[in-house]
């Protein structure tokens, strides 16, 4: 399970990706208190084959705060093993102390990642200058691309658009997951930075895409991910009426998935689908009985919708079904449109 930590692992600088489309922050399946790695690998492969554009391991939805450092690495290795070198994976990183976050980032130097998703320092509520210096220290410690994660409801501090624009001058910073709940800030990020802007508030997904947003890192997309990929493609094709109708169908489930603390409702939905156990680590608790009843009714309607497939994703779907690939065989091509080559 630690194959990506060996000396034969590929240099991280060769993994490149644009952060566009639908990315899913995976839940972390548990079984009797421990990580269920078999369920995690099965879930990762199913998601990778669904038409989405990338995965996030150890994000908020993955209960990263309740995992040990060793579990972070083992879970990431497990996901990478499942989806192989052909599918982009981002690793979530968080913390309050810059030195500790830098140390965590350095642990993944040799992992073949699309990038790191790094939140602003939580709890301590630093100044914007402190946020800049925090992220600059992280960038100096890694060759990986960095996705800024703005989630003030959890961290207690907002990454202002001007701060994001300043950081974006460094080519390490390629995207931002914007979960501040304000369309005005999202608009400023689109207008004033070179970053790919990903919606982090699922209820604002259609509005974000319609404004020119580049995609989403969506916890709700873990349930029927194909429909979120379809929504993205409909907007990109200018089929806004169809996109609006689809989003109207998705919205009741989205609201229920965030009616109680994430990821309890998402795990409840996945448990109803037989994908994971409905098991969380304290202080997170399972979804209430009333919530589950409402979710089950809404989910039944959503699951009745036809499965969507995109022809340009077929090769990737087939690749996910290949046998597991050893680290020595990882040879992805360098993209010509890599952010590192932007001016």
TrEMBL record:
- Residues annotated as binding pyruvate are 61, 217
Q: Which residues form the active site?
A: 149, 177
Per the UniProt entry, what is one GO biological process?
diaminopimelate biosynthetic process
- Catalytic activity annotated for this protein? L-aspartate 4-semialdehyde + pyruvate = (2S,4S)-4-hydroxy-2,3,4,5-tetrahydrodipicolinate + H2O + H(+)
List its EC numbers. 4.3.3.7
User: What InterPro entries does the entry give?
Assistant: Aldolase_TIM (IPR013785), DapA (IPR005263), DapA-like (IPR002220), Schiff_base-form_aldolases_AS (IPR020625), Schiff_base-form_aldolases_CS (IPR020624)
Subcellular localization, as worded in the UniProt entry? Cytoplasm
Per UniProt, the keywords (alphabetical) are: Amino-acid biosynthesis, Cytoplasm, Diaminopimelate biosynthesis, Lyase, Lysine biosynthesis, Schiff base
Which range is the signal sequence, renumbered to this chain? none
Q: What class of enzyme is it?
A: lyase
The pathway it acts in is:
Amino-acid biosynthesis; L-lysine biosynthesis via DAP pathway; (S)-tetrahydrodipicolinate from L-aspartate: step 3/4
Cross-referenced SUPFAM superfamilies: Aldolase (SSF51569)
The UniProt entry, under Gene3D superfamilies, shows: Aldolase class I
HAMAP family documented for this protein: DapA (MF_00418)
The UniProt similarity line reads:
Belongs to the DapA family.
Name it. Answer: 4-hydroxy-tetrahydrodipicolinate synthase
- Biological source species: Janthinobacterium violaceinigrum
